[in-house]
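Hi P.,

Sorry for the delay on this. The queue was packed all week, but I finally got your sequence through. Input first:
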Amino acid sequence: MSSNAAVAEHHVAPGDPPHIHHMDSATAYGAAKLGMWLFLATEILLFSVMFCSFAVMRYYHLAEFADASEHLNWKLGCLNTAVLLISSWTAAVAVTKAQQGDNRAVARNFGFSIFCGFLFLVIKTIEYTSKAHHGMFPVAPWNHEFYAYKNFLGIYYCMTGLHALHVIIGMIVMWWVVSKARHNRFSARYYTPVELGALYWHLVDLIWIYLFPLLYLVG
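Then the structure:
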């Protein structure tokens, strides 16, 4: 077989699923979804460890954690919750549009989700800047000699910082999907990257829904 024939054999038309030698497209779709769900399970386990750490520390230092929580800006946390909920909705709409073969709508809705992710990071940066201005760091005195206050801030920065990293990763994934949608890559026959990208973004949203009341409203 000539090299040109080999290239033609592996060429994938827009909207068609990629050719995989050892499985058909339906099996590849199921394997991709199973792999994503297993990956999301490991992410949930990762954050569960931190949730458990927070619960144990709060049990032993209930009053200090409640007092420290009141120093967080719940209004900015509430605003970020609304931003992520809206972005999760547009990500879900993108999946529906991909199943309908509307690539322009996929790019538009995922693009809006990316914008919401950027807005989330801006709001979080404003909040971090305010904490830095008041010297609220786990290693700084921060007007309290009790280590429980510093532990609260340590958990706060660790959990919200790791979540922000997941937001950035989700934005990169969605941007990659948008670049594919601009080349009419998706259709009713093939929309796996859109669905998996939306699943990841829903996880990012879900984790924040638990983080917000745990950190900002615990007081």
